[in-house]
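User: Fold this; tokens only.

Assistant: Input:
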Amino acid sequence: MANTSDFRNGLCIRHNNEPWKIESFQHVKPGKGPAFVRTKIRNLNTGRLLENTFTAGVKIEIIRIENRKYQFLYDDGDDCVLMNNDDFEQISIQRSAIQNNEFLKEGENVEVLFHADEGKPLSASLPPHLILEISETEPGIKGNTATNTFKPAKTETGAEIQVPLFINVGDKIKIDTVKKTYIERVK
């Protein structure tokens, strides 16, 4: 067992019998009353973000979490089938458990969070940057590279994103999967 002095960003704990990941925390020592720790924690089962306050020194249970690399194979209804690149083991995970899953395409690598003691997949995340092809957008305007205006475009995965005016159908672009924004055109 640990206590609140062991808190750090990314630490996984058991709270209310569910696994949570600490997104951010702040130790607070008010002028009156006992010290406490204000946290933002994310439920690893549902993805829900919760602001919670722990009294300083309270005991917490730290859980072991492992990151494993998997490759997305195909959709199976509401589930996604992933394959471990090392031992070719296949698992199914709900599509909603994959962060920013609208950018997921076949053959893409994902990082899966596993509860180490139970061996159960909790969630998955895409790499921070992906290269996708534009499948639908209005025609580009030649020479319109200096302005900072954007137009809607649809990627090969069906995700909609705002791109500069000079991007055309068939162009490959680099996307920030966390912010869901255009970064640059790739040749």
